[in-house]
Automatic annotation (TrEMBL):
GO-annotated molecular function: heptaprenylglyceryl phosphate synthase activity; magnesium ion binding; phosphoglycerol geranylgeranyltransferase activity
Function: Prenyltransferase that catalyzes the transfer of the geranylgeranyl moiety of geranylgeranyl diphosphate (GGPP) to the C3 hydroxyl of sn-glycerol-1-phosphate (G1P). This reaction is the first ether-bond-formation step in the biosynthesis of archaeal membrane lipids.
GO CC, any one term: cytoplasm
Cross-referenced NCBIfam families: GGGP-family (TIGR01768), GGGPS_Halobact (TIGR04147), PRK04169.1-3 (NF003199)
Keyword Zinc: no
Identification of the protein by name: Geranylgeranylglyceryl phosphate synthase
Origin species: Haloarcula quadrata
Pathway in which this enzyme or protein is active: Membrane lipid metabolism; glycerophospholipid metabolism
Gene3D superfamilies recorded: FMN-linked oxidoreductases
Catalytic reactions on record: sn-glycerol 1-phosphate + (2E,6E,10E)-geranylgeranyl diphosphate = sn-3-O-(geranylgeranyl)glycerol 1-phosphate + diphosphate
Annotated positions binding sn-glycerol 1-phosphate: 12, 161-166, 191, 211-212
EC number: 2.5.1.41
A GO BP annotation: glycerophospholipid biosynthetic process
Lineage: Archaea, Methanobacteriati, Methanobacteriota, Stenosarchaea group, Halobacteria
Chief location bin: cytoplasm
C-alpha cells in the first residue's frame, strides 16, 4: 500500500522560507500532520533541501522531497522518497516530460522504489508555479474532471493534485475531481488557513496540503487545519 493512502494532511515546507521564530521541525511534526513534503519553486538548492530533510528526518514522520527542477533532487536516505510533479495543464512541455527526461538523463542515482509522481492541475494563475509552468488555469469543473480522469486512467497516476497555491480554491472544482477518480488519491493544496477551510476541502480531497500557513502563522494555526482535516475524514467515513 502506498504511504499516502491514509494521509489526511500534509505540511509543505518551502526550503526557501523560514519557520516562525522559535518554532522547530519537531513542532511541525507534533502538529499531528501525516507527512512533510519539502518543496518550493524558487530558491530550491541542494543545501537548503538537505538542511530541511535532515531536520525533519529525526521525527518519525514521513518526509518526501517534491523537486521543482532536476537540480533540486537531493539524494539522501534521511527521507522516505520523492513526489515528482507532472503538470497536466502546463503550457510548456518541460513540466510534463521535458524536465523529467533531462533529470533521468543526468542523474544515475534515481531509486524508482522511492520515486512517485503527482499529477498536478494548477488552478491559480497568480501562483509562481502557474507562471513557472505557463499553466492554462482557465478551466471549469468538466475540464478539471477530464484532466483528473486522464491522469488516472490514461497516464496511470496514483496521485492527482488540484493546486490553488496561494488562494483558497473552489470546492466544486475539487469535488468534480474527487467524483471522477476511482483509486487515485486526490491531494488539494491552496490557501488553507484555519479549521473551516481545512474541513471544507477535506470533505472532497483525500489529503489536504498546507504550505504558506506554517511559514506565516506557525504550528498552532497548522494544528487547527489538522483538526479540520481529521474531522472531515471522520464524518465522511
Ligand atoms: C523532473 C523534476 C525532477 C522536476 C520537475 C518537476 C516539475 C514538473 C515542476 C513544476 C513546478 C511544480 C509543480 C513545483 C512543485 C512545488 C510547488 C507547487 C511549489 C509552490 O509554488 P508556489 O506556491 O506557486 O510559489 P511560492 O514559492 O511563491 O509560494
Ligand atoms: O501555500 P498554500 O497556499 O498553503 O498551498 C500549499 C501547496 O499546495 C503549495 O504547493
Ligand atoms: Mg506558495
Amino acid at each position: 500500500m502506498s504511504d499516502w493512502a491514509d494521509w489526511d494532511h500534509i505540511v509543505k515546507i518551502d526550503p526557501d522560507k523560514t519557520l516562525v521564530d522559535g518554532e522547530t521541525f519537531e513542532d511541525v511534526a507534533a502538529t499531528g500532520t501525516d507527512a512533510i513534503e519539502v518543496g518550493g519553486t524558487t530558491g530550491m538548492t541542494e543545501e537548503k533541501m538537505k538542511r530541511v530533510v535532515d531536520a525533519c528526518g529525526k521525527h518519525d514522520i514521513p518526509v518526501y522531497i517534491e523537486p521543482s527542477n532536476p537540480a533540486s533532487v537531493v539524494h539522501s536516505d534521511r527521507h522516505d522518497g520523492y513526489l515528482v510533479p507532472v503538470v497536466m495543464n502546463a503550457g510548456d512541455v518541460t513540466w510534463i516530460t521535458g524536465a523529467h527526461k533531462e533529470w533521468i538523463r543526468i542523474d544515475d542515482g534515481i531509486d524508482w522504489s522511492r520515486t512517485f509522481t503527482e499529477a498536478y492541475i494548477v488552478m491559480n494563475p497568480e501562483a509562481s508555479v502557474a507562471s513557472y509552468t505557463q499553466a492554462n488555469c482557465d478551466l471549469n469543473a468538466d475540464d478539471v474532471a477530464a484532466y483528473a480522469e486522464a491522469a488516472e486512467h490514461l497516464l496511470g497516476q496514483e496521485i492527482v493534485y488540484v493546486e490553488y497555491s496561494g488562494m483558497l480554491g473552489d470546492p466544486d472544482i475539487v469535488a468534480a475531481a474527487a467524483d471522477i477518480l476511482d483509486d487515485a488519491t486526490l491531494f488539494y493544496g491552496g490557501g488553507i488557513h484555519d479549521y473551516e477551510s481545512a474541513r471544507t476541502m477535506a470533505q472532497h480531497a483525500d489529503t489536504i496540503v498546507v504550505g504558506d500557513l506554517v511559514h506565516d502563522e506557525g504550528v498552532d494555526a497548522v494544528r487547527e487545519t489538522v483538526k479540520g482535516a481529521k474531522d472531515a475524514t471522520a464524518t465522511v467515513r
